Amino acid sequence: MPIRQLSEGTVNRIAAGEVVERPASVVKELVENALDAGAHRIDVLTDGGGRRLIRVADDGAGMGRADLTLAVERHATSKLPDDDLMQIATMGFRGEALPSIGSVARLSITTRHASEPHAWTLSVEGGDKSDVKPAALGEGTRVEVRDLFYATPARLKFLKTDRSEAEAIREVVRRLAMSRPDVAFTFAGEERAPVTYAAALPGNAGRLARLSDVLGAEFRGNAVELFAEREGVTVEGFAALPTLSRANSLGQYLFVNDRPVRDKLLLGVVRAAYADYLPRDRHPLLALFVTLDGREVDVNVHPAKAEVRFRDPGLVRSLILHALKTALAREGGRASTTGGSETLAAFRPMGMQPRDVAPVRNWDWQNSPSRPAGSGFAETGQAGFDVGGPSADARGNGEVASEVADRPLGAARAQLHENFIVAQTHDGLVIVDQHAAHERIVYERMKAALEQHGIGRQILLIPEIVELDDADVARLLERADELAKFGLVLESFGPGAVAVRETPSLLGDIDIRGLVTDLAEHLAEWDEALPLERRLMHVAATMACHGSVRAGRRLKPEEMNALLREMEATPNSGQCNHGRPTYVELKLHDIERLFGRR
Question: Which CATH class is domain 412-598?
Fold first, then answer.
């Protein structure tokens, strides 16, 4: 077949295929243009998931008549002062978005520049441009895209439902709103109620406010601020405490020079930073903002500018890891607000409903087993109301009010159900999960001992024989050297069994059989690509779980207070190794609110 030159219309449709993938792609290009025009408010309206209508209006600088004419021509842009493609300081620069959209849809642009006496309008339908005409509009630009892909109907068959396409548009608006908290955004469509993000104040306070608007109110109360800078690269933003996590990584956002991007290796960096706090199937919420010289990042490696390439990717990722680890270590002892709010929500005013209890007729209180003793109510008998006291009562431990006020976790007052310690602070109370709290303490002790001088061992007088499946035995023996670093020494004891000869002294008297069985199960789930350090930490976490104070153990008052003091001195004590909170705090005003005092 001979080579021939494609027609201009075909060339435009091919170019449109790279830029206009779906309605969300159109919204992204138009909103980025509005941001580059200096807009302070951007309104997005869609209909039919963007198929029938996309309207983006802004109060930016607008365009004059001559610029409007050039805006719909291919390879025309106002965002490159020269031909240097390595210094990109705007959201977009290719100059292909508007002509590409106009080649596959009915495009209408109405705009007014401050220097113009009135607005101008121009339309493009299937690549055919109309003449520029006068129009009425305040300063700014309004772009309407109707009947998307009407000129290329084959593309319509690959679009999803209106609701799915609208959700993709909403995600685009969310990302761009997070990148620019100083700009007000409104997103409306027939698929859902309108969403408005008001312009926020400058600085980190405004950024956190915008992130909370997008990610939810819980994010504000559980966000940890982070910052790191090295060799001209700055990483800042907010990450959630480990107790606020999700089952997927969709709540993780990365911005490079205010441009929302996707970086596959970011997921690995975040997983490594949270490895001490979350299991592999839980993912934190965070928004990271990377700022660096434009020449150090290539933003044109993806047709939709969704991915970037760093000149020194190792520097950027190590800086992100450092910022996350530092912030989490600094705030590791902080209590999650989700626990307290969920605790308050669990309370319900108690009362009998008439339909729940049948009325008792002709009730004689004098013959009731709860009748007060004696002739009056002064000597009330309490036997009928006795439901048992707390597991342990620490009220007589000699703690004075001044000491309580000086301690973040207060003083132990009681143990309930042999698992929860109730402590009194100067402005509320704290409820501690004794097993989760001690699990974190043991884990941090093992990490510190491993780094300093190694974990001490205790030799068993009689080796413990543990019977397992042959595959589990093989896995344990293969990792025997790694387990020995934690003080667990085992060896083969014939087919289907191992002999445990030494255990970590930090763990004390433990269920050896349960520990070895759990380790064998965890080894079966290990990813061989995990670095040795991470595999060792998995071993430490499993051992810490078995070496901690078990639920169901009754503690003495001095043991309860000792646990509280150790929590205050232990890094990351606000969460256990599985990302669950170790304690919840209820302020006095919250408790008063439960009883209608506030």
Answer: alpha beta
Kindly give the residue spans of alpha helices, DSSP state H, lying in 8-49.
8-19, 23-36
User: What number of H helices and E strands is found in the chain?
Assistant: 19, 26
Q: In which residue ranges of the chain is CATH 3.30.565.10 found?
A: 8-197
- The span from the CA of 107 to the CA of 443, in Å, is 61
Q: Is the pLDDT confidence value at 385 over 50?
A: no
User: How is 415-442 classified by DSSP, letter by letter?
Assistant: EETTTEEEEEETTEEEEEEHHHHHHHHH
Determine the topology of domain 204-330 in CATH: Ribosomal Protein S5; domain 2 (3.30.230)
Q: How confident is the model at residue 548 (pLDDT cuts 50, 70, 90)?
A: low
| Token pair 């626990």 in the structure block, residue | 339
Residue 569 to residues 119, 333, 425: CA-CA distances in angstroms? 66, 9, 17
Average pLDDT, the chain: 81
The tokens for 384 are 């009928």
Whole-structure pTM value: 0.72
Domain 8-197 in this protein, CATH class: alpha beta
The partner residues of 459 in beta bridges, in order of sequence, read: 502
What is the Cα gyration radius of the chain?
Answer: 32
Q: What is the 3-state secondary structure (H, E, C) of 166-179?
A: HHHHHHHHHHHHHH
